[in-house]
Specification:
The protein is α+β, with helices and mostly antiparallel strands. Among the domains are: 51-60 and 248-301, conserved putative lor/sdh protein from methanococcus maripaludis s2 fold (Beta Barrel), CATH 2.40.420; 73-170, OB fold (Dihydrolipoamide Acetyltransferase, E2P), CATH 2.40.50. It has one helix spanning 4-49; strands at residues 52-54, 56-71, 74-78, 83-87, 94-95, 100-106, 111-115, 120-123, 164-169, 176-181, 194-199, 202-215, 218-225, 237-253, 258-260, 263-270, 273-278, 280-285, 288-292, 299-301. The strands form four sheets. Strands 2-10-13-12-11-14 form a six-stranded antiparallel beta barrel. Strands 1, 15, 16, 17 and 20 form a five-stranded antiparallel sheet that branches. A hairpin with a 2-residue loop joins strand 18 and strand 19. The longest helix is centred in the first third of the chain and has 46 residues, at 4-49. The mean pLDDT is 87.
Length: 306
Amino acid sequence: MLSRQERLHRREKSRRILKWIIIAGLSLVIIFLIVQIYHRTVESITRHNREIVEARTGFMEKTCQADAVILNDEKTYYAPGEGYFENSIYEGEKVRNGSEAGSFVLVNGNRVTVNVPATGIYTQHTDGLEKVFENTSLIEPGPDTFEYQIKVYGQDGHYYEGDPVFKIINNIKPAEMLVHISEKSPQVIHKDDNLVLRYKDVELGQARVQKIQYLDHQYYLYLKCQEYNQLLTKYRNIALTIVFDHKEGIIIPAQALKIKDEEKGVYCIKDEEIYFKPVKILEKQNSLALVKGLDNNEMVVVNAGP
């Protein structure tokens, strides 16, 4: 049987052990709480610092700028003498060969009835180059073509003998063009290539390369449009955009592209859940990438992952 002193000693020892157990337990609880707070703080900071963008449908193109001289199949009426023209048809009207276009009134008072010289679209947008480009089969693409200067006639309604008054443009035959590409082309151009043309935001369709000259690292082309476009009846010279390559897909920041398990893709987020989604890269331009494999409006985490 234990003595009273031994019992007291054992009881004191048990109290000390229990005390250390309680302290250790409280320490573990405190450490656990600190770790949880740390993780939540890190998660909150990470969530706050995430750069999230919305994937959107779009396209990328390879283009270059060019100057063009428009060559239409046209018949021109020239002033028979000094005087003015009274037209009975309006700009852009479709007319038939032989129909009355109006009257040319000479300075002596004589009035000459003017008939339409061909079937097509009527325009008074003359430029003095009608005779220069009358026979397109003799024209070769080159720098000389772009040295011709346009002259405006009849601004005050007055014409002199030989001035172009109006012309009729064939609205069945597509226009042809002399094109000068002064900047570096994104790809080599060959005869019989089909090029997509754009004027400002207007699509002009395709044109085939009929003739080509490459001088001093610059292209001079003779193009034949595939379709008639009435817009081209208004101009002799225009600035073109030539589209060589057009791809459509989903546009995202190129920085969002990551590699996971040797597979290219992006990290997306939905309901606070981040997941990796493989994509196919179609094109890259500057800081953007065009990809396939994402949905439109899908949320992409730009700075997620390694």
